[in-house]
Amino acid sequence: MLSNQEVAEALLEKFGDQVFDFDEPYGLLTLSTSREEIIPILDFLHNHKNYQFIFLTDITGIHYPDNPGKEFMVVYHMHSFVHNFRVRIKVSLAEADIHIPTATGLFACANWMERETYDFFGIMFDGHPNLKRILNIDEMDYFPMRREFPMEDATREDKTDALFGR
Amino acid sequence: MADIELLPHNVPANADLPELVEELTTLNLGPTHPATHGIFQNILKMDGEKIISGEQTIGYIHRAFEKIAERRPFYQITTLTDRMNYCSSPINNLGWHMTVEKLLSVEVPKRAQYIRVIMMELARITDHLICNSILGVDTGAFTGFLYVMQKREEVYEIYEEVCGARLTTNMGRVGGMERDLSSTAVRKIKEFIKSFPPVLRELEKLLNRNRIFMDRTINVGPISLERALSYGFTGPNLRAAGLDYDVRVMNPYSSYEDFEFDIPVGQNGDTYDRYMVRNEEMWQSLKIVEQAINNLPEGPYYADAPEYYLPPKKEVYRSMEALIYHFKIVMGEIDAPIGEVYNAVEGGNGELGFYLISDGGRTPYRLHFRRPSFIYYQAYPEMCKGSTLSDAILTMSSLNVIAGELDA
Questions:
Q1: For residues B65 and B280, what is the distance between their CA atoms, to the nearest angstrom?
Q2: Candidates 3.40.50.1820, 3.40.1700.10, 1.10.645.10, 3.40.190.10; correct CATH number of B66-407?
Q3: pLDDT tens-digit series, residues B352-366
Q4: Do residue B250 and residue A26 have CB atoms under 8 angstroms apart?
Q5: pLDDT tens, residue by residue, B279-293
Q6: Which residues in chain A have their CB less than 8 angstroms from residue B243's CB?
Q7: Contact A2, A83 (CB under 8 A)
Q8: CB contact under 8 A, A25 and B339
Q9: A107 touches chain B (CB under 8 A)
């Protein structure tokens, strides 16, 4: 059984201070890195001959508008079948420079996951073979999962949040 | 005789014929093609009847569930989840409840866990039943499909008995089930366990060793294990390619570790293997249902978590605490703890994941659904490259792409 400690130490040894903010919410090893190191880390975990994180579970984005310089976050989930071990890797991006390298070279499934993230958050995955909208229409000129877009019709005055306890 | 008019078929072989132009055909498969069982478009480039490449357009029934979820209290998100994979809604519902319970650290009693297992396995049976019988329809055997629909109907009657709805079930609550299994539900489940095997055996007899069916499906739309892993396949489609990854076994939830069942695997990852894996999984699911209903533990069917689980209506009318909790839950006054959870269940099509970030409010800060259909459907052009159009239809059918789950 692989322990969080062991993987964290292996990553620290290989990448030094490029991996930081280690945490384990509900037992799942979580760490942050910079966008320069994300592909090397994914590659390291994927091709590690002992760990074998061969399964990229998920890529998604999060918007933190109140976090200047780190408005966006891309979250990767990986899974090692051999050890039944999951790891979560986060990369923070600034809104002014919203670029991150693509993982499509490592995992074929990253293609649509990254397109979905681009579609909803506008995160640019550099080097992606076909970075265009996937679920929304091509003509859409905003990124709907960003927090500044309210769900309900903003022109209505009869539906205030206070009435709904939010 | 020299001035006879030359008709086209009389033209001598050595005459100057226009040069033969070779062209590729572009074919729009979908968005509303009846053979695709859902609304998605494939723009296929074809050389005669062979597919050279395909471009997919999806999102026709995108409903922005992740955005809607950001404005809804946890218990109202359940109704969004059952609209994803609507062939096995209870798995989605209960998977969502388990995610919230993990966030809230609520322990669900054994009885509720067993009831959940029964419902999830029945849902898996209906899911696979649809997929396999539709595969029969696509190869030309309509009878089997209509025949097994009767059994799906019976499962839907069990759903009705347990939660009141049939398709969009909204089953269970955060913290347990909304009601106990009634005696009618137990009777219906036991009847189903008895009456389903003959029907499934008959479907097997119709298709499994049927020469036409085998010729149509063996080596159609194959994918190697390596590619399947790279494409993030999970569930029956990955198992057909030869890897026995099943969330129920690898990370047991809801007491799956109590039950004895096998994980069938295929070898070639082709349409026939996918069919056979689903077929065997139905037997295994039935086995689990049988074990669960026979060993159903006594005890409460919901957790002792009054701040999250709606109190019984009778209590609300006569007890002050119950009334307060009822009001607070319905009005969304209950805040969830701050946390970050990834929880996966084995859905009908594979690993159905919920990535939930709570900032301590009544609604999720961010909720992301890892939808298996969405992730593996991108392999489709690669899988049907070089095959005929009729085989491509079978490949799509055996992948069991559910439009609701694909687009969320």
A1: 33
A2: 1.10.645.10
A3: 999 999 998 888 999
A4: no
A5: 999 999 999 999 999
A6: 81
A7: yes
A8: yes
A9: yes
